[in-house]
Write a structure and sequence with these properties.
The complex is a heterotetramer, with 2 copies of chain A (about 150 residues) and 2 copies of chain C (about 90 residues). Chain A is of the alpha+beta class and about 150 residues long. Chain A is built from 4 helices and 9 strands; from the N terminus they run αβαβββαβββαββ. In chain C, a hairpin with a 2-residue loop joins β4 and β5. Classes of the chains: A alpha+beta (about 150), C alpha+beta (about 90). At the A-B interface, α2, β2 and α4 of A face α2, β2 and α4 of B. Chains C, D: Pathway: Cofactor biosynthesis; molybdopterin biosynthesis.
Chain lengths: ~150, ~150, ~90, ~90
Amino acid sequence: MAADGGQDLIILTTDKLSADSVSQSVTCPSCGAVSLFIGTTRDNFEGKKVIRLEYEAYSPMAESELRKICSEIRTKWPSVRRINIQHRLGVVPITEASVIIGISSPHRSDSLEAVKYCINTLKATVPIWKKEIYESGEPCWKENKE
Amino acid sequence: MAADGGQDLIILTTDKLSADSVSQSVTCPSCGAVSLFIGTTRDNFEGKKVIRLEYEAYSPMAESELRKICSEIRTKWPSVRRINIQHRLGVVPITEASVIIGISSPHRSDSLEAVKYCINTLKATVPIWKKEIYESGEPCWKENKE
Amino acid sequence: MNTEVSVLYFAKSAEFTGLKAENITVPSNISSLQLWQHLETRHPRLSVLRDQVVLAVRQEYVPLGEQPLTLRDGDEVAVIPPLSGG
Amino acid sequence: MNTEVSVLYFAKSAEFTGLKAENITVPSNISSLQLWQHLETRHPRLSVLRDQVVLAVRQEYVPLGEQPLTLRDGDEVAVIPPLSGG
């Protein structure tokens, strides 16, 4: 697992996220497949206009929960090569990415399934919170439902 | 379907593909999720060192089959917003992308499932062929198995 | 025996307490539910979160319930409202 | 009645025929298997593809078999070896 650990890249940052940078960091010569999931900020919620999101994290625990997810992925899909999970914190403007997950594997089905597992588990277990700021009305802390 | 058609972008090109350009072209303010699949060139096949790939397409029919896939996706996942399918033709060096598929949707499960369906169907139905060039030995036209 | 732990508040719980963090003194052998009740006594507005919240002790999740915690000086306890990352 | 169609060769089939495209004259009412046999007669090396190949007529796939095609002058027929896109 120590060797694999070096292939797991976890970044929590207030900087803008880049799909190219995630895809490049997980691409490797022995991999035929890179799957990416990008969560972006939506402009509406139940008819209210969202003007921006603000994310807050319990950062050391969020990193530790993300490492657990990486380790679960490597158990479930041993062929997975590189994992890069980036989550933006602080203010995220509309249409910008709040999260990007990139996973590479020699064959496509592993990275596709692993990315789906990763975003579902991230939403369920990683201590990060999102507040929606509306054009009018009180801001609202969201809750992941699924 | 005419209105949806405008949201389907299909590109066959000999230029280098970019994950950022695909992700940007499918991001929209009403979408919370963008899923990307990137097929890259692997450096080995059954122990032989691959030095590059060459892709050839029956281009007008490939575009028409890709449009059929887009239309099937919109039937199966009506919430899908934008679809961008880019396939590179000609020489593709190792680790560069041969195909990038980007799909956006308000919620994540639709775009994740649609991307998986898209790459699986593309490999089964779109008239494109790949020749692997090895460091030593005869080049080989590949066949998609799955 | 009492011990001093550091409590972190996130999201709604930080708004309800007006605090990001504080040190409190509690019995070192205590259930997670009793610990939560200590916090509610200090910050009555937290009570609306009771059915939704979990704690994290030393960065591991602990649901509110009867199982005993063994707290040591300087332990980090966090109040974890429903998650909304991603 | 005969008709002139344009035949396109891709991948392995282009290597076997040494051609990307050619015009050939065939009966306008013909099965896809008979059309393939015409192509095999012109280019005997194609025969190794017989169990793997399909045709595309006017850019729609047609498996090799008995169903009749109705070919018109200038129709595009393509030889489609096993696909390997993606």
